[in-house]
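// run 5 | inverse folding | seed 20
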């Protein structure tokens, strides 16, 4: 498991804990408002004090509800990204040794492909192609021969040390 995935999982756990805390606090505030209302009716606190407390509690509750919505959206997005990644991995596993690229494979694994205009650099022609894979977007690959060779050498080192 890579570091960014672990960090994302830790962040997701933190977000779920915060969401639970915020939801509990919203319920607590409802109870507090009910109690100060009863205290105001019975004369234990003044109307002015009730108005101040009520206003502060309602502001806090409104802020918490906004935070709850933001966290819920973030959690849902993270969950959807995990589902998309898992689905993509499952699809890729079906095609571990592709002998021939078929329309079925392309349609299942790729959302879209952008092909850019050819350019010349130091007398060589280059053409940028962006491939957006289903559920995961663009996967970075080395852009030139030098980077490709370095990646290849790194993979060889990793295989030898494994």
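// decoded
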């Amino acid at each position: 498991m890579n570091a960014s995935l672990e960090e994302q999982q830790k962040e997701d756990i933190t977000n779920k804990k915060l969401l639970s805390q915020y939801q509990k606090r919203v319920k607590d505030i409802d109870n507090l408002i009910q109690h100060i209302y009863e205290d105001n009716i019975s004369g234990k606190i003044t109307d002015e004090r009730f108005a101040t407390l009520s206003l502060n509690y309602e502001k806090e509750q409104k802020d918490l509800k906004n935070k709850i919505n933001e966290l819920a959206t973030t959690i849902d997005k993270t969950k959807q990204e995990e589902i998309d990644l898992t689905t993509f991995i499952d699809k890729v596993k079906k095609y571990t040794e592709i002998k021939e690229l078929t329309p079925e494979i392309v349609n299942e694994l790729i959302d879209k492909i952008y092909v850019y205009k050819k350019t010349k650099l130091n007398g060589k022609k280059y053409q940028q192609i962006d491939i957006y894979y289903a559920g995961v977007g663009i996967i970075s690959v080395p852009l030139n021969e030098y980077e490709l060779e370095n990646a290849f050498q790194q993979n060889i080192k990793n295989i030898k040390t494994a």
